Amino acid sequence: MTPADQVLSLCARIAALTDIPGTITRTFLSPATRAVHSLLTAEMQSLGMTVRTDSAGNLRGIYPAQDDLSSRGNNLSSRSEAEGSAFAVPTLLLGSHIDTVPDSGPYDGVLGVAIPIVLIRMLAGKKLPCNIEIIAFSEEEGVRFKFPFIGSRALVGTLTRADLTRTDYLGISIAQALEDFGLNPLSPSAPLVTSRTFAYLEVHIEQGPVLESLALPLGVVTSIIGQSRLSLTFHGEANHAGTTPMSFRKDALAAAARFIAEVQSYPQDDPHLLATVGSITAFPNAANVIPGAVTVSLDVRHPSDAARLEAVEALKTLAQSHGLPVTITDRGGQSSVPMDPALSALLTTAAAPYAPHCMASGAGHDAMIVAPYIPTAMLFLRTPRGLSHHPQESVSAEDIQTALATCLRFLNTLHPTP
Ligand code: GLV
Ligand code: MN
Ligand code: MN
Asked: What domains appear along the chain, each with residue ranges and CATH number?
């Protein structure tokens, strides 16, 4: 099998491990996630890597540096999670997330874990002047807790004690979910990464149409645009559908529907503004009951943080203009984040044979959480039809081959910061 076919095969085997048979759906710390951990652990151990799960449920494998460096105290499995050890070896972090949106495609996130594993195989035992650590982030999409980036926030120490009390639809908190998975207790603000981790590279499908429209296989990300995530609950009054005259009603779904239409029309003057209601829940959700309460999600993105925040305020005001009380909950926004210029330049040089396109990312990535703390670069692969967050998401073996070749050159030209 070619290395690109090995990547595709690994993605296919991961895709088969799902919470909902017949779809690709894997949420934070679900049974399917544990199965993916077993599969990836076996893969990485077969390459001589030391594998563990950190206290945020991120699966992490270390491919050690060349011997003279490794002997300076590289036994991560026996060190505490803070990993601030002065003896740690310079470490390059490679990875992405293994959770998915509901009914996902096989490559969003997963490709960024499969490519590094095959890269290590391609090194055929050759060691570098740094450790390579592969990380499969436990949570990026924000599906289970309506709160994204749990794995990467924990990695850099920005997950707060209050975040750990966020609950899923069953009322299980993040802290409880971590405990139920059998993990060591998580100290919210303590980073789970050694200070000797000098760079992070995330490989990801573009998830949009730009590279395909330019007929280019690869992109180098310059920045990741900011996002706001909120939920809004419209409070009406449940009542009988057959006895309550229309003028007497406090219909929460009717108010939410008017708001959703406003969200659709709001960005028309600004082509950079993206506003989405992607989820709606009505209570009690029965045909003969006037909806008493409705919760909708709101996702707002813009390359300019000021423009995004202004739009969020305007949309909140619109939500409150429908005559019903509205409760608004913050679900974890992020500012726009630049990638590291020097590391991105190195990546661009490594990809030079493929004329990579430098571009901003409209999708959020773990890289946007890591970048303020660790120099970070991102490599994009062309996404056929720009189709992602969709079961027919795809990527070609040829483009994977270009990404592997680029990453190999990147590894061979990277100089660890001493
Ligand atoms: C991640 O997929 C995002 O929502 O951008
Ligand atoms: Mn995604
Ligand atoms: Mn992703």
From this structure: 3-224+336-413 (3.40.630.10), 226-334 (3.30.70.360)
The pLDDT of residue 268: 79
Q: Which of 33-42, 79-88, 96-105, 288-297 has the lowest mean pLDDT?
A: 79-88
CA distance 44 to 150: 23
| Ligand 1 pocket check for 299: Cβ under 6 Å | no
Does 364 contact ligand 1 (Cβ within 6 A)? yes
Pocket test of ligand 1: the residue of 230, 297, 301, 365 to mutate, having most ligand atoms within 8 Å of its CB, is 365
Pairing of strands 376-381, 280-283: unpaired
Express each pLDDT in 294-334 by its tens digit: 999 999 999 999 999 999 999 999 999 999 999 999 998 99
Cis peptide before 284 (omega within 30 of 0): yes
Q: Ligand 1 centroid vs 76 CA: distance in angstroms?
A: 31
Q: How far is the centre of ligand 1, averaged over its atoms, from the C-alpha of 365 (Å)?
A: 7
Handedness of CA 247, 250, 251, 256 (dihedral sign): positive
**Shortest-distance atom of ligand 1 to CA 142:** 4
What the block records as the tokens of 14 is 């991961």
Mean pLDDT of 68-95: 62
Mean residue pLDDT across the chain: 94
332 lines ligand 1 (CB under 6 A): no
In this prediction the pTM is 0.93
